[in-house]
From TrEMBL:
Residues 198-388 form the Fe-containing alcohol dehydrogenase-like C-terminal domain. Residues 9-175 form the Alcohol dehydrogenase iron-type/glycerol dehydrogenase GldA domain. The keyword Oxidoreductase applies. Keywords: Oxidoreductase. It comes from Bifidobacterium erythrocebi. One of its GO terms (molecular function) is butanol dehydrogenase (NAD+) activity. This is BdhA NADH-dependent butanol dehydrogenase. It comes from the Bacteria. PROSITE patterns: ADH_IRON_2.
Amino acid sequence: MTFTYYTQSKLVFGVGAEAQLEDLLKENHATSVLLVYSGEYVFDLGIHDVVDRAVRNLGATLIETGEVVPNPRIDLVRATIERAREAKTDFILAVGGASSFDTAKAVGVGLKYDGDVWDLFTGVAEPTDSVPVGVISTIPGSGSEVSDCAVLQQGHDKRALENRIVIPRFAIVNPEYSRTAPYHYQAAAVADLAVGFLEPYFTAKNHLESADRLLEGGLKAALVAGRRFVKNPDDLKNRTELHWLSATMFNHCFLATGSENDWTTHRLEHELGGEFDVIHGEGIAAILPSIIRYVSRRQPQRYAQLAVRVLGADPYDDSEERLAAYFADYLESYFKLFGLATSLHELNIPEASIEHIADQVTGGGIRTVGNYLPLTRDDVVEVLRLAY
């Protein structure tokens, strides 16, 4: 329980927060800005005009790429690094959600590395510096706007880089900007948001009781806000709640500082996303209930505790195993409310691919997955079959 907590990120939150962009760029001494985004929403919401005006007022130059796609690819990062080097880019501004932010973070560390940026994702090299990155969030859920994580894929190989160096210098969050987010993508992001409070919760080692209570409260708030989103996606007050939960949930795992986090669900989903181009949050929804059902056969305690503390189940009426099963059933029903897939066959993932996925995520059985109950290759196979 000995740790140091620090984050360099400044969060500018609320309607009209974008008005501070010029000052934020000035604070970071921006003279050549790279703008990273995807889709026409940057223009429809007026964000492009805000950025262009702020950059011009500073006398800086602007280059941009609007070619980011979900499950962002390394090819675009490599090409953008070359353009940014030619333009002597000294600040990167990303607009959107995790895909844009991950791309910007990768470009930032890639600009300060002499080799291929993919080395930093495979572990061949460690990042030592980054061109500063700022973000403007238009969809809540991933927490990437304040996180130390970037996820990219090369071909079917999806990797995560986790390093404090990539935490954005600032995040502008105007909840009005998420009003144009496509429903299915936002629904998947809200599913991911709830799970963000779960992954740090599962630890078999020493941890703080206060962290448990904070994570439980965050999960309960996320579940309530998610249900309200389904009823009325346009509700600004509720979208404000979702944006704040997103920034709180993954603020460098602030709510679980000092404990060993699990991340089983994310590691398995990254393999599915890399192989089959699944939307991240929907991949989470498809496998999480089965992970709970499988793991709770041997370690039901933490799931049972959540069923009692978050869902209000009666601990005197049921065994820990039955309480864990109730928690899994609740989450599955919750994901279905959004219209998300809750099984692998709904995502058109071939059952024959299960063995291959298990090999990939465990290195052919050399590694285990997760910390709460480390899963072997055979365990992963059983989880995925259960999810099918």
